[in-house]
Amino acid sequence: MSPATGAVTDALRELHSRYAGVGEGELADYIPELALADPGAFGLALISMDGHRYSTGDAGAPFTIQSVSKPFVYALALSLLGLDEVSRWVNAEPSGEAFNAISLERSTGRPANAMVNAGAIVTTALIPDTPVAPRFGRILDCLSRFAGRRLDVDEEVYASEAATGDRNRALAYLIRSTGPLPVDPVAAVETYFRQCSVRVTALDLAAMAATLAHGGVNPLTGDRVVAEPVAAQVLAVMATCGMYDASGDWLLRVGLPAKSGVSGGLIAAGPARFGLAAYSPLLDRTGTSVRGHLAIGMLSERLGLHLM
Ligand code: DON
């Protein structure tokens, strides 16, 4: 992080008080449990490459990771299988569509990318499942290593998502009908629901983003979670696809690889510089935290974080 540490703390505090009163956006309610979130919750966290933690507001408040899990499970799949094999199953092209769109490539049936639900379900399904190392156990271990502490599942959110997840089940069946789903659709989607229901805080998400920014080494624990090329591959897909049909506008204006989630989590990474996260559950039409978007956008402008 190049700006002075005092400047980072001041900027986070100032942005928090500037945007805390913004009341626009809606709570996600298609997963009923998510509609119980506190609409006023708002936290910001930044972790630098030397492991310095900066935070303000509700940065320690728990919420479920939702789609912010997708880049990290993609990282796990890339680590275990390599880019060529993973790319046989899921492409890396921006879809220009909503997160829950069908988004399957016409010629191969592959999902457009691993950030939309269709691609994330396939990515989850690619993680090997053995009696000694079950698929979800591997995913939870990996997410925990990215965060630098042991994470767990919010069982209420999982049950709520499983009870209402027919669109994702439909996507999984549709993908299998065109070919590229390596396991049973029900098994794939149930694991995907559990992955989305892993409980985190904004500080956890900042550590996860910082690990990608730091070439795959967690700056808090020193743990090498993934190899450097894998971290670079994941950041590239976040930059082009992480914000769904708002990815181009986000990269243009904010200039950072990022990923949003419908519980209100949002991460952005400055390669070799920092990991940044926001939590605020009021969402815009693309499923992005309104306050998170405003705060990260302004922080990028203030501190000159745009990649270009
Ligand atoms: O599959 C779903 O619909 C949710 N578990 C996750 C979607 C999500 O977070 C989209 N991102 N903004």
TrEMBL record:
<dbReference type="GO" id="GO:0004359">
    <property type="term" value="F:glutaminase activity"/>
</dbReference>
<keyword id="KW-0378">Hydrolase</keyword>
<keyword id="KW-0007">Acetylation</keyword>
<feature type="binding site">
    <location>
        <position position="161"/>
    </location>
    <ligand>
        <name>substrate</name>
    </ligand>
</feature>
<feature type="binding site">
    <location>
        <position position="67"/>
    </location>
    <ligand>
        <name>substrate</name>
    </ligand>
</feature>
<feature type="binding site">
    <location>
        <position position="244"/>
    </location>
    <ligand>
        <name>substrate</name>
    </ligand>
</feature>
<protein>
    <recommendedName>
        <fullName>Glutaminase</fullName>
        <ecNumber>3.5.1.2</ecNumber>
    </recommendedName>
</protein>
<comment type="subunit">
    <text>Homotetramer.</text>
</comment>
<feature type="binding site">
    <location>
        <position position="262"/>
    </location>
    <ligand>
        <name>substrate</name>
    </ligand>
</feature>
<feature type="binding site">
    <location>
        <position position="192"/>
    </location>
    <ligand>
        <name>substrate</name>
    </ligand>
</feature>
<comment type="similarity">
    <text>Belongs to the glutaminase family.</text>
</comment>
<feature type="binding site">
    <location>
        <position position="117"/>
    </location>
    <ligand>
        <name>substrate</name>
    </ligand>
</feature>
<feature type="binding site">
    <location>
        <position position="168"/>
    </location>
    <ligand>
        <name>substrate</name>
    </ligand>
</feature>
